[in-house]
């Protein structure tokens, strides 16, 4: 290994050791959940709100934010009880009960890291923390000082006795009558009332406070422009809507990281939170729903040729009434119905054979008396109708992003 590589490895190890020795301390007050974001913000002089937003974004995309937060909660000590006479309380390690709970929560959370996006988020979060400590590790560090030894006391040494005169002073606590020659008192004690301080240096002037830097608002506007450009470019290249929004959200995240170092960009939080919600909603919706119509739409075909291969709706209620559909034995048709936000309602004839797939990313599914609710609710069913096999064949694929799917007969 070359000298340069050895030096780089040594610097990396020194940074890790220094981080562990001076790692953030979770405050007793000011934290929202476990105080991890507040601890990082106070340790490195970064706005805790930006740290919280970073954790939320990492949790939304891949779940790495949850793992990182639980690790910080487990490994960062907590601020101890204040002790009279001590300027700063001693940090306390995480309690055993809480540590067991956090480890149990970490076990299922680690399974989220199986995707490449989650692994990338975890690596990015650890790298960001390393770079922050490397650049701002000297902030808000209280040097460790040895406590004064109060277990024993001794009388200060008394020099040989000197003849009494106007420049001599008899030490008040000495057992003998030895006298100490008086020196010229400092300027802050012109009367010489504090003989124990005659040898102290003159007090220095207090250092002037650092001038406050004005907020850099240009970071917000430049980042918003870049985010809009990234969203428009990815959409023009044919990317799905949720992917384009993810690129815009990632651009806002980079702007907030840069702004945390340059003391600017706080306005990006107001844009990132609703944009993240919209991106999550768009990711849950079926494909191509944003190009569909909106409102309540009712379709009632009576012949097999009138059944469309697909029905799309961005928002609203789509009702597909097939009760009057004429379909002979041996005939079959297939159709797909997708709604972004709203409801899919399908009415089937009594005797038609049907293969159904009903899915809701977030909502309820009622598929011929089979009910599912919650996230990614799905039902798959084959039903031969009241007369058994025969009477034509239908294959329906029904999907809604946020909302309900309902399929009934008659």
Please name the defining characteristics of this protein.
single chain; alpha/beta; 9 helices; 8 strands; elongated
Structure, described:
With 410 residues, the protein is an alpha/beta fold. It contains nine helices and eight strands. Strands 3-4-5-8-6-7 form a six-stranded mixed sheet, with helices on one face. Helix 3 (48-60) runs antiparallel to helix 8, helix 3 packs parallel to helix 9 and helix 7 packs antiparallel against helix 8 (241-262). The chain is elongated. The termini are far apart. 27% of the residues are buried. Mean pLDDT is 75; it is low at 143-156 and 158-182.
Pick out the low-confidence regions.
143-156, 158-182
Q: What's the Cα radius of gyration?
A: 36 Å
Estimate the strand proportion: 15-25%
Q: Any idea what the shape is? A: elongated
Spatial strand arrangement across the major sheet: 3-4-5-8-6-7
Number of helices: 9
Helix content: 25-40%
Mean pLDDT: 75
Structural class based on helices, strands and sheet pairing: alpha/beta
SSE topology string: HHHHHHEEHHHEEEEEE
Q: Whole-Å distance between the termini? A: 79 Å
């Amino acid at each position: 290994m070359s000298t340069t590589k050895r030096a780089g490895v040594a610097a990396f190890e020194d940074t890790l050791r220094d981080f562990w020795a001076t790692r953030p301390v979770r405050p007793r007050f000011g934290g929202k959940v476990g105080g991890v974001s507040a601890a990082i913000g106070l340790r490195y002089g970064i706005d805790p709100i930006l740290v919280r937003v970073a954790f939320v974004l990492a949790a939304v995309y891949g779940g790495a934010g949850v793992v990182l937060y639980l690790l910080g909660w487990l490994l960062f000590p907590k601020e101890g009880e204040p002790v009279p006479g001590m300027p700063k309380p001693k940090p306390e390690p995480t309690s055993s009960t809480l540590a067991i709970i956090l480890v149990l929560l970490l076990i299922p959370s680690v399974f989220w890291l199986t995707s490449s996006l989650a692994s990338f988020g975890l690596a990015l979060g650890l790298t960001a923390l390393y770079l922050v400590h490397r650049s701002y590790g000297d902030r808000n560090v209280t040097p460790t000082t040895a406590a004064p030894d109060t277990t024993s006391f001794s009388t200060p040494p008394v020099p040989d006795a000197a003849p009494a005169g106007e420049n001599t002073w008899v030490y008040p606590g000495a057992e003998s009558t030895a006298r100490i020659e008086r020196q010229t008192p400092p300027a802050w004690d012109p009367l010489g009332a504090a003989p124990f301080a005659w040898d102290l240096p003159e007090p220095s002037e207090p250092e002037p406070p650092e001038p406050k830097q004005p907020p850099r608002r240009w970071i917000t506007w430049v980042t918003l422009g870049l985010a809009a450009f990234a969203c428009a470019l990815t959409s023009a290249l044919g990317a799905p809507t949720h992917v384009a929004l993810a690129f815009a959200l990632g651009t806002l995240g980079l702007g907030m990281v840069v702004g945390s170092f340059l003391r600017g960009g706080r306005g990006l939080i107001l844009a990132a939170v609703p944009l993240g919600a919209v991106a999550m909603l768009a990711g849950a919706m079926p494909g191509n729903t944003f190009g569909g119509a909106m409102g309540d739409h009712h379709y009632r075909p009576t012949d097999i040729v009138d059944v469309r291969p697909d029905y799309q709706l961005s928002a609203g209620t789509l009702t597909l009434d097939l009760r009057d559909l004429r379909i002979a034995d041996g005939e079959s048709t297939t159709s797909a119905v997708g709604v972004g936000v709203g409801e899919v309602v399908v009415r089937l004839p009594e005797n038609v054979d049907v293969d159904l797939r009903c899915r809701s990313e977030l909502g309820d599914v009622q598929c011929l008396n089979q009910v599912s609710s919650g996230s990614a609710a799905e039902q798959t069913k084959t039903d031969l109708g009241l007369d058994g096999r025969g009477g034509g064949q239908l294959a329906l694929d029904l999907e809604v992003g946020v909302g309900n799917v309902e399929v009934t007969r008659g």
